[in-house]
Structure formats: structure tokens, C-alpha cells
Design brief:
Blueprint lengths: L21 E6 L5 E6 L19 H11 L4 H11 L1 H4 L1 E2 L5 E2 L8 H13 L20 E3 L7 H8 L6 E3 L9 H8 L3 H6 L2 E3 L22 E3 L7 H7 L7 E3 L20 E3 L10 H10 L5 E3 L10 H5 L11 E3 L8 H9 L6 E3 L9 H5 L4 E3 L4 H10 L4 H14 L8 H13 L4 H15 L9 H17 L4 H11 L2 H6 L4 H10 L7 H14 L5 H6 L1 H20 L5 H13 L4 H9 L2 H11 L3 H15 L11 H11 L4 H15 L9 H16 L9 H8 L1 H13 L7
Parallel strand pairs: 5-6, 6-7, 7-8, 8-9, 9-10, 10-11, 11-12, 12-13, 13-14
Antiparallel strand pairs: 1-2, 3-4
Helix pairs in contact: 1-15, 2-4, 13-14, 14-16, 15-16, 15-17, 16-18, 17-18, 18-21, 20-21, 21-24, 23-24, 23-25, 23-26, 24-27, 27-29, 28-29, 29-30, 30-32
């Protein structure tokens, strides 16, 4: 039998004689504090969220409203369709999939369907073929990070009337020249494609992008972080309708070609343009001629130590209509220089000052309508996380500042948590981002703060943390942060996540002998997660669970030998009790690894009722297994169980009675020991009759007490049977 559960089902776990939870801190053997989960009064747990005050935190209120709302029917249906695509589609002779003939998707659904497939990693050469023909009607093509070939791209997508294409970070099987060639094969796309994003996409060595000049309807172009040269810039500057251009982190050395589009270019992003060879005066001369420019980004990685922004702020006859200026990462930037620049240009609504020495003045923090992405306060950091979600260098800087700012935070900040999740999602293989983000997540969800966060947002963050653990299995501090997050009762009880995979990850941490804190957390989480697995998952985890039993027994034996009754010991006992629940294989493995001998040692070392109840609970699980119960019929064990039957702690007595009831119900196990069985039955009957009525807090005890009449009848009939009479 497991520890007591309430009526809400298997996913809600209750400790010993409790019914809900609270976060407590306990001290490990070294005296250090370790966050653990203790369960107390369930009726006090909040079940509805109170969103932040919209006037004080408009962004947070909006995030709570969005995240606390149920998923739309379209969202649910599309996810179900993607999950069952192989079953619902037909297979062509070439192995690709096609939709049933009578299926037609409207434009909005087609766009969402494709975007969701790409985001879930389900867009492949085999599945992309469903977009061939006329059953889908695409306008917005979002294939970020997809792994498809050039032939599939052309065949599946380039017959649609596309107005936007986002091919950010697609696999190298689909290089930029092939994307442009395929798009330009459609005359309609040539004239009407308005937005093209090619960030971090492969360009073969010595290749150029001649086809881009044929996309005459293009208004927005981003070639961030690709092999893009001066010749390519000259080519795209000829585009008659180009308004927004991002050439960040490219190989451009001269931006003079931009003068060609000076009468139409409204947004220019040149983040980390480290190959630029022009002098500052030449650069400013080009910028000065861009009369329509509303947004300029000349931010830089702080390690490159660029002073271009510092000199730009000194210019008086430049950027008269500027609305947004990003100079994050620039050197020698001061509040005074930024203030003067903004005062001369009253239309400025945004300024990026992250990783600079500016952002501290009252003017910058109090000016109405001015948004500042910086590191001075929470508002600036929130803006930075939102603005730089695709730039890992700035995400790292913002998260580092956020970590120090949230040590003593006592208000729920769902918008911040949402932006952290976006940063983690966009940079899954960047260790500094993942590690710092995990630390910030802990600060934002500690103690009672998690109870005020939307469950859906917490679920997303939990999944991202597990992904980080999987991507960086050797980085122990990151693993520790993720485990510490899981000790939060709100996460373990209310938040949906893949508990099967979580259990596998956490069990691996049980063997972390060099870090007692990690081991303690892993033990406590394991003890709860195993109760939340469905039977099918438990059978799939047999091998992992057996490893867990071996590790936990080693911990218990070590603690008993050292006479150390600490948090790790308590949770190890609890975990073993729960692991053996309705699992004969685990019970057998427990016995084979000297579990009975170790538990006898524990009984003799720690005579407290808490330890006794956990031991007896596990022995009950073994007694329920008919093939294993005879192994409990030993003089030493029966002596201890009989003694505990008379314990003043009703729970201990109840558990001991359960074991004896199981062991004595099969006469065949007591050949030549009828006197002993008869004595046990009489003792058991007398004890049950003396139990108090309904004074025990354990809900499961009520059932046993209710049925005690049945046990009494069974015991009395067993005692009076001639076969049980002593000879």
C-alpha cells in the first residue's frame, strides 16, 4: 500500500496523515538549508488566480489573462491532427503523405497548421508534402528550424500565394540560394512577397544572392547572421519598396549602397556589424542621408568595445525623425548624452541601453511614453528580455541583472517569467542562457510566488527546464537548479508535465553521492513522482525503478549505520514505500538487495513512529504479493511486527495489523507453526477491537476500521477451526 491519498485521484499526493502542502526548508547533515516539499492543508491551496493590477502591471495582467485562459478549440484540434498525422493521411508511392481528398483548409488554419508543425519539429520531407496541391491555402510561410530539402520546399510551398516567408535557422539542406530560386519561380510571389526572414540560414561558400533582386514587392528583409556581402547589399538596395532591413552580424564592410533607398528605408538594423571598415564620419554621412529612417539599431556585443554609438550621440543634424534608437553594448555612453539626444528628438519612444553605463537618470526612467531596454531596474530588464529575445548575448546580460534584482522579490511577475521562457526556448543550446534562466526561474517561483502564476506558463517553464537538463547532463549546477524548482509543491501537484520522463531524469540524480543536496532533492521528488505514474508507465520504467531501489537502500543503510536521521533519510524511506506500491517486481528487487535486513537495522536504530510507519507501509506492500509474503515470516520480523501492533501510535498499530492480516490469511504458509499463527490471530483480533473509532487522521484508516468487523469474524473463525487447534 502507498502513503495515504485523497479522493482527487492518483496525481494528487498526500503525505502521511496530511492533506495538502506547504514549502518548508530543512537542514541537511552539514547544516545547510535544502528546500523540500511538505504537505499540509489542501483546502488552503489557491485554485483561482488573481491577475496583477492592470494599472500597475499591465503586461503581467495580460500574460495572466492569456495563460490562464483555456486553449482554443483550433489549437487543440491542430495539435491532435499533428499528433495523428500518420494515421489520418494516405501514403504516396514515393513515401510522402497526402491529405484525404475531401479535406480543405482555409488560409488562417493553413498558416497556423504549418507554423505549429515546424515549431513541434514535425515538418519533414515526408510530412511537408501535405501542402502540395490546393487543399491548403498558405499566405504566411513559417518554417523556422525545419529540416526539409530544397526540392521539397519548391514542390510543397512555392505554388502558394505567399506574402511572408520566415526561414530562420532552417537546416543546411535548404540553403539561401535555393530558397530564393524557388520563391522567384513563382511570378506572383516575385511581385507580392512582402516579408522575407533568412536569419542564421546557410549560404554556401563564395555564393551570392542574385535572385533577391527579383522580389520587387519586398518591404521587409532580414539576413541576420548569414554570409551576406557588399555585392548583396548593392543588389537589395535596388528593391523599389524596401522599408525594413536587418544586416546584423553579416560580412558587409561598406553600407554606402543604402543611399540608393534613402527615400524609402524606415528601419535599419546593424547589430554587431563587426566587419565594417568605413570611418565613423563616412557611416554618419550615409545615415544622415536616410531621411525617412525611424528605427536605427547599431548595438554591439559589449566585448567588441565599439564607440560608434558614443559618437553618434554627439551628432546634431542626424536622424531628425527617429522613433527607436538601439545603442546597447556601446562604450562611453552616459545618461547626459542620451538625454540630450532624446530632448532634441521628441519623437523617440524607445532607446536600447543594455550593457552600457546609462539608464540611471530620472529622466530616462520617468519620461512618459519612453521605453528603455536596460539593466537598471525590473522594468528595463523586462523590456530588454522582450526586445532582444533572439540575441543570446543580450539575453545573458539581462538575465544576469535580473537574477540579482529578484533575490528579495515578493510579488508575482508572470510577464517576466514568460519572457524568460521565450529566451530559453529560443536558445536551447546556450548553456549560460539556460543556467542563468534556471536561477531566475527559482527566484520568481520560490515560496508562494508559484501559486500566483498561471499553470500553463509553469508547465511551459517546467518542460523547458527538463530540456535544459537533457541538453546539459554534465553541468551539475543547472541540474541542481532544475531539481530545486521541482521541489515546489505547486509544480509537483498542479502543473502538467511529462512525469514519465521527469522520473527517469530524477532517478539518475539519486546516485549523485558527491552532492548531498542534489541527492536529497532527487530522493524527495522521486518519492512523489512515482505515485503519479500510470501502470503502463511504471512497467516501462522497471529498469530505472530497480536502479532507484538499489540507490535508496544504499542511502538508508548508510544513514542507519551513521545513526543520521536527516531529510535524505526520511525521503528515502518514503520513496521506497511508494516505489513498492503495487509493483511485485520492485518488491522482489527490494528483498534481493537485502532490503529486509536493512529495514530491521533501521527499526532497531530509529524507534520513532514516523520511521516505523514507513517501514510497515513498505512491508504491507510486500505482504500483498502472495509469492513474496512467505519471506516475511521470520522470527525476527514477526517479533518486531507483533511488538509494533501494540504501539500507542494508532497509525503504526494499524499498519502492523495489515501485515499480520495478510500473513496469517494463508494457512499453508504456517505448516508446523499453527500455535504461533493462532496466537497472532488472537492478538490481532484483540488489538482491532481496542482501536479507537474515527480518531485517526488517515483517511485510509477509516476504511480499515469500517471493515474491522469482517477481520474480526475472519480471525475468530480461524481461531475456532480444529485445524488451528494446538496439538
Amino acid at each position: 500500500m502507498p502513503e495515504a491519498r485523497d479522493s482527487r485521484g492518483p496525481t494528487t499526493v498526500l503525505a502521511r496523515s496530511a492533506s495538502s502542502f506547504d514549502d518548508r526548508r530543512v537542514r541537511d547533515a552539514g547544516g545547510s538549508e535544502v528546500a523540500m516539499v511538505y504537505f499540509l492543508h489542501t483546502e488552503q491551496a489557491p485554485r483561482c488566480l488573481r491577475p496583477p493590477d492592470a494599472q500597475v502591471d499591465a503586461l503581467g495582467a495580460r500574460v495572466v489573462q492569456e495563460e490562464a485562459s483555456p486553449y482554443s478549440l483550433v489549437h487543440i484540434c491542430l495539435n491532435a491532427l499533428i499528433a495523428n498525422l500518420e494515421k489520418l493521411c494516405f501514403e504516396r508511392p514515393d513515401g510522402t503523405l497526402c491529405l484525404p481528398e475531401n479535406w480543405i483548409f482555409p488560409r488562417e488554419i493553413s498558416d497556423q497548421f504549418l507554423r505549429r508543425m515546424a515549431w513541434q519539429g514535425k515538418l519533414t520531407d515526408r510530412t511537408a508534402s501535405i501542402f502540395q496541391g490546393n487543399q491548403m491555402n498558405l499566405k504566411v510561410l513559417n518554417i523556422q528550424k525545419a529540416k526539409i530539402s530544397a526540392a521539397t520546399f519548391r514542390r510543397a510551398f512555392c505554388h502558394h500565394k505567399l506574402i511572408e516567408v520566415d526561414a530562420t535557422a532552417v537546416h543546411s539542406d535548404l540553403p539561401v540560394p535555393d530558397i530564393l530560386s524557388a520563391l522567384c519561380s513563382n511570378k506572383w510571389i516575385q511581385q507580392n512577397l512582402r516579408c522575407l526572414l533568412l536569419d542564421s540560414t546557410t549560404v554556401p561558400q563564395n555564393s551570392r544572392l542574385p535572385f533577391v533582386g527579383q522580389l520587387t514587392g519586398l518591404r521587409i528583409l532580414s539576413v541576420f547572421n548569414i554570409s551576406f556581402y557588399n555585392e548583396d547589399l548593392v543588389n537589395i538596395s535596388q528593391l523599389p519598396m524596401l522599408q525594413c532591413l536587418d544586416i546584423s552580424n553579416t560580412l558587409v564592410t561598406d553600407i554606402s549602397a543604402l543611399i540608393t533607398c534613402k527615400d524609402q528605408l524606415k528601419s535599419l538594423t546593424m547589430h554587431n556589424l563587426k566587419c565594417l571598415t568605413m570611418s565613423k564620419s563616412q557611416i554618419f554621412e550615409v545615415i544622415r542621408k536616410l531621411k525617412c529612417l525611424l528605427h536605427l539599431d547599431i548595438s554591439n556585443h559589449w566585448q567588441h568595445k565599439s564607440d560608434l554609438a558614443f559618437h553618434l550621440l554627439q551628432q546634431k543634424d542626424i536622424l531628425p525623425n527617429i522613433v527607436s534608437l538601439d545603442i546597447s553594448g556601446g562604450q562611453y555612453i552616459t545618461d547626459g548624452a542620451v538625454e540630450l539626444f532624446i530632448c532634441q528628438r521628441p519623437s523617440v519612444k524607445f532607446v536600447g541601453l543594455l550593457a552600457t553605463d546609462a539608464g540611471y537618470s530620472d529622466f530616462l526612467n520617468a519620461k512618459q511614453g519612453l521605453r528603455v531596454a536596460g539593466e537598471v531596474n525590473i522594468n528595463q530588464i523586462t523590456e530588454a528580455l522582450n526586445q532582444y529575445r533572439n540575441r543570446s548575448c543580450f539575453i545573458k546580460a539581462a538575465l544576469c541583472r535580473l537574477f540579482t534584482k529578484t533575490f528579495s522579490i515578493n510579488v508575482s511577475m508572470p510577464a517576466l517569467l514568460k519572457f524568460i521562457a521565450i529566451g530559453m526556448k529560443n536558445h536551447p543550446l546556450d548553456l549560460p542562457v539556460q543556467f542563468t534562466a534556471s536561477a531566475c526561474v527559482l527566484n520568481l517561483t520560490r515560496q508562494g510566488l508559484a501559486s500566483r502564476m498561471p499553470v500553463r506558463l509553469l508547465s511551459e517553464v517546467t518542460c523547458l527546464l527538463f530540456k535544459a537538463m537533457k541538453n546539459f547532463p554534465l553541468y551539475q549546477q543547472l541540474q541542481k537548479n532544475c531539481l530545486l524548482f521541482l521541489t515546489n509543491a505547486r509544480i509537483l501537484v498542479d502543473v502538467p508535465f511529462d512525469r514519465f520522463e521527469a522520473t527517469k531524469f530524477v532517478i539518475k540524480c539519486l546516485g549523485c553521492h558527491e552532492n548531498p543536496k542534489m541527492q536529497t532533492m532527487a530522493v524527495s521528488i522521486t518519492s512523489i513522482l512515482v505515485l503519479q505514474l500510470v501502470p503502463g508507465e511504471t512497467s516501462q520504467l522497471q529498469e530505472d525503478l530497480l536502479i532507484a531501489v538499489k540507490e535508496l537502500l544504499a542511502i538508508v543503510k548508510e544513514k542507519a549505520t551513521e545513526n543520521l536521521h536527516d531529510a535524505t533519510f526520511i525521503f528515502s524511506m518514503k520513496a521506497l514505500w511508494n516505489l513498492t506500491d503495487e509493483s511485485p517486481a520492485v518488491c522482489k528487487y527490494f528483498i534481493e538487495n537485502q532490503g529486509l535486513e536493512i529495514f530491521i537495522q533501521v527499526l532497531e536504530t530509529f524507534p520513532d513512529s514516523t520511521t516505523q510507519s514507513k517501514i510497515l507501509g513498505l512491508l504491507n506492500n510486500i505482504a500483498e504479493v502472495r509469492e513474496l509474503s512467505p519471506m516475511l515470516i521470520t522470527e525476527c520480523l514477526l517479533k518486531h511486527i507483533s511488538s509494533l501492533l501494540h504501539s500507542k501510535d494508532i497509525e503504526v498499530s494499524y499498519l502492523a495489523a495489515g501485515i499480520l492480516a495478510h500473513l496469517t490469511c494463508d494457512e499453508k504458509q504456517w505448516l508446523f507453526r499453527h500455535l504461533q499463527r493462532n496466537a497472532l490471530l488472537q492478538d490481532l483480533h484483540a488489538t482491532i477491537q481496542n482501536w479507537p473509532s474515527s480518531s485517526c487522521k488517515m483517511s485510509a484508516f477509516v476504511t480499515y476500521r469500517f471493515n474491522s468487523g469482517h477481520y474480526g469474524l475472519y480471525i475468530m473463525s480461524a481461531v475456532k477451526t480444529p485445524a488451528n487447534t494446538a496439538k
